[in-house]
Amino acid sequence: MKRRSLWLKIISAAVLFGAWQIAGMIPVSYAFPTFFESMAALVRMAFDGTLLMAYIETLRPLVVGVGISAVLGIGLGLWIGLSARFDWLFSPIFIVMQAAPLAALIPLLVMAYGIGLTSKVFVVCIMAMPVIVLNTASAVRNTPASLKEMGRSFLASDRMIMLRIIIPAASPVIFSGLRLGVSAGFIGAVLAELKITPTGVGDIITYSRSIADYPAMYAAIFSIILLAVLFLNFLERLEVYLFEGNVRGYASD
Amino acid sequence: MVMPQIKEAVNVTDMPQSDNAVVARKVSKTYGDVEALRELSLEFPRGQLTSLLGPSGCGKTTLLKIIAGLLKPNSGEIEVNGKPVTGPGPDRAFVFQDFALMPWANVLRNVAFGLELRGVAKSEREAVAEKYIAEVGLAGFEKSYPHQLSGGMRQRVGLARALSVDADVLLMDEPFSAVDEQTRRKFQEDLLNLVQHENKTFIFVTHSIEEAVYVSDQIAILLPRPSRVSEIIRPTDLRHKNVDNIRRDPEYLDIVDSIWASLRSYVE
Q: Are B130 and B107 in contact (CB under 8 A)?
């Protein structure tokens, strides 16, 4: 497998953080802290336990929502991809879901499900699920016909064709759907905390902004992005581990 | 079965009589309004290589897939070893034009896949696969993935996979059409060896006249729309010649010419 060289990663991070530092020093806005101020705030919050408590709160809807989206999304996607009737029945729902302006729908969700965990999980799912379902369905539909024929001619049962040919063949696109879905899920989790009730990381962001502690606010945003990147890396490792030959280069690392 | 069109090139006495591995009887197949095959009958002698040759769109691949059990004929039947075909079976193995290798699996798993689907234990099927990987000349590439191999090597993997399930009948759908000319010549020589040493029946679809004459014991020429067998040619003397001399043998050249003469009017 191809890897970006470590140096390239370090240089690109240095350029980005350097630009951040310079922009903070000019400053482009007095509400925009420098990189080092933000990192100091991040370290401070990491050590006094604020960050840990916040993530315990934020990760709950995130993990539940992403978990539901991944399992249900891949399941539904497989079904939609295999059956034209199911496609007809369910595809439109997910296309609408993907296009819907979520922030405007949140009050509706709150009316129906309250301000607790359920609503937040819903927000994560609405963000994460459509792309997982639609990617899985189109990947399954586009399984090379000759691979399926190969399976049949070597006496595979329908179940074996499904498990050993269709799913592995679709896995690169399923995984790219998962990556997009998971990133969207992270956005959904923060969005839910900003729009429904300020808890966890959303609380740090809202509270820090209200007392003009901008380094802490940017530190919280930075930490959630970092977490998302780490999780996406983990997903890619998983893909490489499961379907090594499918990987012909990096998708993200 | 009467086949009045058989061209008796020389003698037929050394031919094994009436031992056919595969028999097609009045097979018809239509796709919607298009009639692909009409009452096609053909016999495939055991242990020999029969080519299906014809212009594109003449239903050669359709016939092959019907024999494989991948397609159902509208009428007529196929018999393999005397038993009618109702679907894919362990007595037939398929070599695909586009190789149909699983990109996520290495060479070893691809070759062993037929046995894997039959529930053969891992160590056993890998031992068989390794043997055939070596036989097709890919020893040392067991752990490589298909995208790391050249086109010719990929088709060797496809061939090893078909050999490893030890079927009586090998169905080859234009197996060499996606590899370059030099590789193809090497393949053809290897195929002749294989026919000689493996006791299998080969059914070989091709659109190359030279290839068909070079490798075949029997060539069935199919003419299109709807497809029927127009002629069966049995090059009799070529098989006993050295592979290096076949291409300048007068019989080879004559057959190539006569096939082209009968096909040229069907080629747009």
A: no
